[in-house]
Write a structure and sequence with these properties.
alpha+beta; Rossmann fold; 9 helices; about 25% strand; globular; PRK
Length: about 400
């Protein structure tokens, strides 16, 4: 055992995963938009099934060439890091995700070389004023058009273009649609990707970001008070008004996800009120198609590891890792946990050497990706590490399902 390293483990220790080299297939992701309407108050008080919104008509056009679109689903509450996660994932497939060029400046869609990210808020069937009229939140199922969501995701997966609606987060209105051409990887992110069983069946790999109430509250205070000037009372009122619908409709979806990232208060600092140090778990389901869980040291063992000492610069409160088997909603899972944060991110390479089944193409790729995105929130703790690992898994899922390879993207 290395000096300065403490470990409690059952079973023997093994080393890192196999490395492979791949070549990226070329592809073109196209995107064009309809004309942007004037900002006008369009109250949507009818039900989703009968609203008759002309701007959300499904118009399919055959996509050129034979291509299988893989659908990745990401569920989380608002303000829980979906945008940062998407940027980490899409970068692994080449290019930085950007809004569609020449289109609606308020579009929620992001496009990179091989991926398209669509926001499921675009399938609201009630605008902000319609929800107010009906007394429902944006989380309520009756505020969503699940029929159109299903039809369009299914069409994209079948290689057909669709005219997807746009929910304008600035005005709260429903804008004219934009054309989505099938990409290699379609990422659907939002509140309800797994809620409707028809939509859930279309998703090839599913991820849920599970932020604890304590951390979510601390994050919202930091963002809304410091950056937006909101009062503490208004923040509390907003959280409380959404909580019943979140508990009823959003939170249960994590039971359907293949991987769950839980963000919790640290256990290294008693009564940490600021919640700046986090304990993050990556809960990985077993027996998922084209997916093998990442493990620490020895697969299936239970490991508690404090990797501080000569290899890591660890100031208070330090870093602690855990790995072991567990159950989650009655299913067998492997849990990888990190509590604390890195002082020097380049020292992650030492931790990477003890992780196996990472889906990295070469030793050091995890560290390389983390250093590439140091400006992203969570880059020095478990949120950034596990988002990066899941991004590598998404790449591997794509390669296994399509029998195509993606070249590793250099820093």
């Amino acid at each position: 055992m290395r000096p300065g390293t403490t470990m409690a483990t059952t079973g023997h220790l093994t080393s890192a995963s196999k490395r492979m080299s791949f070549v990226r297939s070329a592809g073109v992701v196209q995107h064009r938009m309809g004309m942007v309407s004037q900002r006008m108050h369009q109250r949507m008080s009818s039900s989703c099934s009968s609203r008759g919104r002309s701007t959300a008509v499904v118009t399919y056009a055959s996509a050129s060439g034979e291509q299988k679109t893989i659908v990745i689903g990401l569920a989380a509450d608002s303000g829980c890091g979906k945008s940062t996660f998407m940027r980490r994932v899409t970068q692994l497939f080449g290019g930085d995700p950007e809004p569609p060029k020449g289109g609606n400046p308020d579009s929620n869609t992001l496009i990179s070389d091989n991926t398209t990210v669509i926001c499921l808020d675009d399938y609201h069937c009630l605008d902000r004023y319609g929800r107010k009229d009906k007394g429902v939140t944006a989380l309520a199922p009756e505020a969503q058009d699940f029929d159109l969501m299903y039809e369009q995701i299914k069409a994209i997966k079948e290689g057909k273009s669709v005219e997807k609606p746009i929910y304008n987060h600035v005005t709260g209105l429903l804008d004219p649609p934009e054309t989505i051409v099938p990409p290699k990887i379609l990422i659907v992110e939002g509140l309800h990707p797994f809620f409707d069983e028809r939509v859930n069946e279309l998703i090839d790999f599913s991820i849920y970001l599970d932020i604890s109430d304590e951390v979510k509250f601390a994050w919202k205070i930091q963002r809304d008070m410091a950056e937006r000037g909101h009062s503490l009372e208004s923040i509390q009122a907003s959280i409380e008004s959404r909580k019943p619908d979140f508990d009823a409709y959003i939170d249960p979806q994590k039971a359907k996800a293949d991987v769950i990232v839980q963000v919790l208060p640290t256990q290294l600092i008693p009564d940490d009120e600021e919640k700046k140090v986090l304990r993050v778990k990556m809960i990985q389901k077993e027996d998922v198609e084209c997916f093998d869980p990442t493990y620490l040291f020895d697969e299936g063992s239970t490991v508690s590891w404090i990797p501080c000492g000569r290899k890591l610069t660890c100031s208070f409160p330090g870093i602690k890792f855990f790995y072991g088997p567990d159950t989650f909603y009655g299913e067998n899972v492997s849990v990888l946990e990190m509590d604390g944060q890195f002082d020097k991110l380049e020292e992650l390479i030492y931790v990477e050497s003890h992780l196996s089944n990472t889906s990295a193409k070469f030793y050091g790729e995890i560290t390389q990706q983390m250093l590439k995105n140091t400006a992203f929130p969570g880059s020095n703790n478990g949120t950034g590490l596990f988002q990066t690992l899941i991004g590598l898994k998404v790449r591997e899922v794509y390669e296994k399902m399509t029998s195509k390879t993606v070249e590793s993207v250099s820093a």
